[in-house]
Specification:
4 strands, disordered C terminus, globular, 113 residues, 19% strand, 4-stranded parallel beta sheet, 2 helices, alpha/beta
Length: 113
């Protein structure tokens, strides 16, 4: 379960965005998962991102390179392990090719213009 500071169960958290918002959604999903994983580990519990997070982006810039540089080498590939995110891109759109790749646990799906 996912809880906020008041102890309320949040259930699932959806991260979604388009273009730059999609890159920010990838970043936010990683940051949120990392915080929840660290909190669960501190309490002696396990935490599985795929049970709590959905990630969907549309023509998003890839957030992978930005995460690696921001985390100063502390980026952990396994934080979003098992997350079945979806990245949709229109063929020929340049934006989805920028930014260094989408989160590795997600798969890309082409959209027809």
């Amino acid at each position: 379960m996912v809880f906020n500071a008041a102890g309320d169960d949040l259930g699932r958290v959806d991260f979604t965005g388009h273009s730059l918002g999609g890159a920010l959604a990838q970043y936010a999903a990683y940051d949120y998962a990392k915080q929840q994983e660290d909190a669960a580990a501190g309490a002696g519990q396990g935490w599985v991102p795929s049970d709590h997070i959905d990630l969907v982006t549309f023509n998003a810039l890839g957030g992978f390179d930005a995460l690696q540089s921001h985390e100063d080498g502390g980026y952990q590939d396994g934080v979003l392990a098992g997350l079945a995110g979806h990245h949709f891109a229109v063929r020929g759109d340049i934006v989805s090719r920028l930014g260094g790749g989408s989160m590795r646990s997600a798969r890309a799906s082409p959209l027809r213009p």
